[in-house]
Q: What sequence folds into this?
DNA sequence: CCAAAAGTGTTCTCGGTACACCCATGC
DNA sequence: GCATGGGTGTACCGAGAACACTTTTGG
């Protein structure tokens, strides 16, 4: 059920470099038209939850990194490829969370003007790219420091943004991000997915800050430690982190075997 | 988040009747190609959880009722329409649960032979229908007695099947059904979705049997009643059901206002 | 010695589970 | 009156939530 993160990333055929005109006129031969994948890529840095966004040349406003599905790859492979193209990362925690197919998704009233003045409207409209598109949403949790945001040749920029302070987003991508955040919050309650956002070694206070950031509330320190340790997925290391004029907290790492087991055993109350 | 069931079904333009040849050659003009919706429609009857399946003329094996998305309808509208076409029902509890896009989904080893000997392979292959298709899975919970399975003009049959005793399923539809069942089971733990499967009036023992059937285990009678009543979504009626040589159990109905509120407030343990 | 953060244990409450007796009905 | 199933209450247990003091460290 939740094995996405364990899948060994099969390196799929990378999209051939092609110029924009060629992509507009011939892309549909390689890709499935009218269906895209958008990845909500979360990172965590300086006590902030961040999302990786990209902007297009010639268009104001930002959007989620996305792409089309090659006719010969599965959608999961496509999602991993798209994520790899923007971050350089392989073998990350990546999960499908919802498919967005509202007719309004292209007509976000907040920024319709931005789109109308862009080449997306002028040139892509009329081609396969201008058709209505349904988008499969995936979210990824990655270690911030390992990812190097990479614009592609169509990008003006590709950068991290604070969840709390997002720029103007094109299409329905704000809604997609919100749904992704809700999904993580729910999942975090049952499964220790948050660990994917941290480096190999971390302290419990750091882990707690992450949880507090994602859930947007404070958590009692003692209860947090009791609960998180009771999951049995953490290993205490014989090292401490020096943090200035304070007591040095222990470093932990997580036991990937037990971690995978815990991910697949979500428990809950009720019947 | 879970408002699907509250949406007032907007009656969309029904698919024009067209013959199979026309559909094969021209359907892509009306519908989005390479993307379909498949509905796992659950009903409950005689203490059995049932799924509505259909079979194609000229093809052995069964599959989920599905269809394509009209270019002018949202995917949710499409799902409601497809469900309406097979059951005659509107305004039902319907939820998207996963999008299936494995390359293997068309090549289920268990029944490849069935497909190869069919017109689907001979005639549809080469047309837009023969292309690889990605499918958005929706599940519906409906009141069994209200639905009248309706084959369409391409169908050999359309009928209810016991979850415990499914026929040979084409494509990856068995996997789709299994994932739908798991989704319901998880959801049932947090939200009283099961009520959608029962008639307006029901007794607590009947409701309990439904839960036991879905979860595939027995539940203590006293604890079940305590818990289900504590949700506050049931109203006890001044009526009892006569059930032969036994004490007559009270009938209940559910308070739709409180019910909707309860659906949107899923609680849980954890942080 | 003082400020700041880490580490740790107990109590309370609530929900989940286990369990037993009496009641209504039709034969 | 008896068999069958419906209705109800109590005791135990574990997880979550509330809560305070001591220890380490650098300045």
A:
């Amino acid at each position: 059920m939740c094995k996405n993160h364990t899948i060994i990333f099969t390196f799929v055929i990378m999209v051939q470099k092609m110029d924009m005109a060629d992509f507009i006129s011939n892309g549909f031969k390689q890709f499935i038209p009218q269906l895209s994948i958008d990845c909500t890529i979360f990172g965590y840095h300086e006590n902030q939850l961040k999302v990786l966004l990209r902007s297009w040349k010639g268009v104001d406003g930002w959007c989620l990194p996305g792409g089309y599905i090659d006719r010969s790859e599965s959608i999961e492979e496509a999602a991993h490829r798209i994520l790899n193209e923007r971050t350089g990362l392989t073998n990350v925690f990546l999960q499908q969370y919802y498919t967005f197919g509202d007719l309004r998704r292209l007509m976000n009233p907040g920024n319709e003007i931005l789109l109308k003045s862009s080449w997306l409207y002028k040139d892509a409209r009329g081609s396969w790219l201008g058709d209505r598109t349904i988008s499969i949403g995936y979210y990824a949790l990655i270690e911030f420091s390992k990812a190097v945001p990479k614009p592609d040749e169509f990008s003006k920029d590709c950068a991290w943004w604070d969840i709390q302070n997002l720029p103007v987003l094109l299409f329905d991508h704000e809604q997609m991000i919100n749904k992704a955040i809700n999904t993580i919050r729910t999942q975090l309650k049952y499964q220790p997915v948050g660990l994917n956002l941290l480096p190999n070694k971390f302290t419990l206070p750091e882990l707690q800050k992450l949880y507090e950031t994602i859930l947007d509330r404070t958590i009692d320190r003692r209860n947090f430690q009791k609960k998180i340790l009771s999951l049995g997925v953490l290993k205490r290391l014989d090292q401490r982190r020096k943090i200035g004029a304070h007591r040095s907290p222990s470093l932990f790492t997580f036991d990937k075997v037990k971690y995978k087991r815990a991910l697949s055993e979500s428990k809950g109350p009720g019947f």
Remarks:
- The domain at 198-264 of chain A is CATH 1.10.10.10 (Arc Repressor Mutant, subunit A).
- The helical segments of chain A are 20-30, 75-87, 112-116, 119-124, 173-190, 204-215, 221-230, 256-264.
- Chain A has eight helices and ten strands.
